[in-house]
Amino acid sequence: MIESDKELSAKVQELWDNDINRLQPGIDYRISLQGKAGDSMAINDSNDIAGYPLFTFVDENIFKKETFSAFISLLDNYESDTGEPEIVTPEEEAENHKFLDAIIQTPVMKIAHKYLVEKHLSPEDEAQFKEQLYRIWFELYARRGSSRPDSSGFEHVFVGETRGGQTVIGFHNWIQLYLQEKLGHIDYKGYSINANSPQPDQNKHIMALQFSWKNGIKPKGSIFIGVSPEFEFALYTLCFLSSPNEHVKVQFSFYHVEIVCHHYNQKHIGTTYPVLLKYRNPE
């Protein structure tokens, strides 16, 4: 690994070690991987070899924790179709601030903030740091093909969007996936692997999968499972601000991961998600 990746890996390991709200697989939640998804983009795909939902159990008491409940309150604030302009109500803006206020007090965000201040990438003042986070994640911009502000980093990554009614874009969050699946809006079609991917493991926290949502298909999406909202926020913000590369390789815990982080106008997150490269055997 190049030197900066080693430094970033050490910081990501610190985030991982301090993610006190992370769920334990097999205890706080259980998933059913079933079979490998096909390559078809069809909605009513006969290749759907996952007859059951991905999530077989989630301890919903977790969702009462402050950062989780503040996060969940944001998930119904968006128009999923790109091209539909977003109208942010004062209530929704207040919910955004409440979420940032909650996560900024967590150990993982404090670690990320301290590191970014040391690198002269973020202001030391907490209120100014929160403004920076708001701009990166919640400020609206016009996604490709739209003339009006219809998207944000938060909506794309954590909520998901649809394009042309046929394709799901973004949508890289397990909580949204679980809640939408519970409502019957998600049809999990199986896990995704290629020749270089490790076989997925129901006790690990990263997987690639295929699913349909709102009449659109996500042919391949990659997500963390069971981690806290603040962990993902801290990790992705760290990668966005500290690396000019849109593909950052890091190692932590059992995982060799590439964090894909596309910048939008250098001010906002276009998309960001983890790609599992391999599992590292515990030494």
UniProtKB/TrEMBL annotation:
This is Uridylate-specific endoribonuclease. It catalyses: ribonucleotidyl-uridine-RNA = a 5'-end dephospho-uridine-RNA + a 3'-end 2',3'-cyclophospho-ribonucleotide-RNA. It is an enzyme of class 4 (lyase). The lineage of its organism: Eukaryota, Metazoa, Chordata, Craniata, Vertebrata. Pfam families: XendoU. Its EC number is 4.6.1.-. Belongs to the ENDOU family. Keywords: Endonuclease, Hydrolase, Lyase, Manganese, Metal-binding, Nuclease, RNA-binding. Its cofactor is Mn(2+). InterPro entries: ENDOU, EndoU-like, EndoU_C. It comes from Monopterus albus. GO terms for molecular function: hydrolase activity; lyase activity; metal ion binding; RNA binding; RNA endonuclease activity. Monomer. The keyword Cell membrane does not apply. Residues 4-278 form the EndoU domain.
